[in-house]
């Protein structure tokens, strides 16, 4: 896996691209000189865990023959400074909103499997962050 990050020549505005041609904008907050023309690196971590888990959940629910119509993941990180002054997420909470003809037990099982076993981003972040989740199902 490879990602290239290229500075766009203005403040902290950058563009990251992968080998498949996917592109995302990265930037710093205005208080450090950024344009806020993209997501901050810390926001990308939250997007990464939300996206990773969503991919797992969709895949697991499909295998369980569940009729998933929509999925939204709201990810909230509690960012705090550590002993040497750098920010880190002490806790990350994900709220999943799903819709469709879904069995609540199967949804819970899919979420448990994703967060505790399959999501590589969750596994990478769990060493320094307490990760929790809840969910709601709308028909």
Search tags:
three-stranded antiparallel beta sheet; three-stranded mixed beta sheet; GMP Synthetase, Chain A, domain 3; alpha+beta; single chain; 139 residues; globular; 3 helices
Quick structural overview:
By secondary structure, the chain is α+β, with helices and mostly antiparallel strands. Helix content is 32%, strand content 38%.
Overview of the structural elements:
The protein has 139 residues and is an alpha+beta fold. The chain folds into 2 domains: 3-32, no CATH class; 41-138, 2-Layer Sandwich (GMP Synthetase, Chain A, domain 3), CATH 3.30.300. It contains 3 helices and 6 strands. The strands form 2 sheets. The protein has a 3-stranded antiparallel sheet with strand order 1-2-3, with no helix packed on it. A 3-stranded mixed sheet has the order 4-5-6, covered by helices on one side. Helix 1 crosses helix 2. The longest helix is centred in the middle third of the chain and has 23 residues, at 41-63.
């Amino acid at each position: 896996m490879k990602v290239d990050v290229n500075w766009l020549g203005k403040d902290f505005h950058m563009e990251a691209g992968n080998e498949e041609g996917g592109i995302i904008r990265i930037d710093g907050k205005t208080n450090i000189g950024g344009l806020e023309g993209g997501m901050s690196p810390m926001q990308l971590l939250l997007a990464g865990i939300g996206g990773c888990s969503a991919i797992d959940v969709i895949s697991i629910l499909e295998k369980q023959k569940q009729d998933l119509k929509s999925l939204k993941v709201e990810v909230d990180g509690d960012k705090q400074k550590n002993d040497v002054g750098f920010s880190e997420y002490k806790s990350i909470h994900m709220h999943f909103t799903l819709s469709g003809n879904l069995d609540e037990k199967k949804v819970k099982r899919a979420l448990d499997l994703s967060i505790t076993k399959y999501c590589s981003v969750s596994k990478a972040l769990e060493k320094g962050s307490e990760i929790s989740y809840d969910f709601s199902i709308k028909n």
